[in-house]
Amino acid sequence: MELKSYAAKSHQGPHLQINEDGVEVDLLQKIYMVFDGFGGTNIGDKTVSFLKEHIKRFYSKVGGDPDATLPFFYSHKYLLEGNALINSMHYAHALLKKDNLARPMHERGGASAMIIAQSENILTLAGTGNIAAWYYRRGKLYRLVIPDSMEPLARDSHERFLHTTPVSAFGLFDELHLNVVEYRPRHGDKLAVMTDGAYARMSDEEIRYVFESKDDSDLDRIQEIFSLVNTRGNIDNQTCLLLNF
């Protein structure tokens, strides 16, 4: 199953002066990345750039190479590309931890992330922190990756933007915890990945409704999501990536 088209947008939001989110689509290596950085101006945004560079560099060396050394992780449950992706994320996390240790506390950065590696007709999604993923198929929306945040621990889904504090992220803890999911897209599927500045003030039903809009382009759909959450008080950066199969 080939990727037919994609749309991606990242914005600082209605109130912030700097965008610490980030999105990257690498069609050559077939990896797709969404980040939600933290640490403040000139810290969170630089952390996202740092992670992008080192994840892509490591993945380019080991992805698709059956003889490559996987120093951090290996599981027979996942494809070679999935294992390479997980190792790339652990590698970047180790470098970020080392970089943070050399800095005072107020200069240390981190990031939530969702990275997707494509291998023929299988996508491996590896996420950490407050980023969520859905797929839309034949009129139904399915939650594919639940954020690793306080949200699943909350008893009430009402006003879930109050519960998006990440409990795992790059640079946040000694160990990097990843939620890993393999997904086989079908013809007509749409995969969406969003930071909490985009999804946290919308219900899944509202997201499904936006996807079903026939006259809008994917960039229009993303902007509709951003505009809606901004009218509901969003003060965060916001990023959305849509992949069409």
**CATH topology tier name:** Phosphatase 2c, domain 1
The residue-averaged pLDDT reads 93
User: How would you sum up the global shape?
Assistant: globular
The CATH C-level name is: Alpha Beta
Order of helices and strands: EEEHHEEEEEEHHHE
Radius of gyration: 17 Å
Query: How many structural domains?
Result: 1
According to CATH, the homologous superfamily is: PPM-type phosphatase domain
Please identify the structural class as seen in this structure: alpha+beta
**Count of alpha/pi helices:** 5
**End-to-end gap:** 7 Å
Total strands: the figure is: 10
Largest sheet: 5 strands, antiparallel
The percentage of residues in β strands lies in 25-35%
CATH architecture annotation name = 4-Layer Sandwich
List low-confidence stretches. Answer: none
Describe this structure in words.
The chain is α+β, with helices and mostly antiparallel strands and 245 residues long. 27% of the residues lie in helices and 28% in strands. The protein contains five helices and ten strands; from the N terminus they run E-E-E-H-H-E-E-E-E-E-E-H-H-H-E. The strands form two sheets. It has a five-stranded antiparallel sheet with strand order 1-10-9-6-7. A five-stranded antiparallel sheet has the order 2-3-4-5-8, with helices on one face. Helix 1 (44-62) packs antiparallel against helix 2. The model has no long low-confidence stretch (mean pLDDT 93).
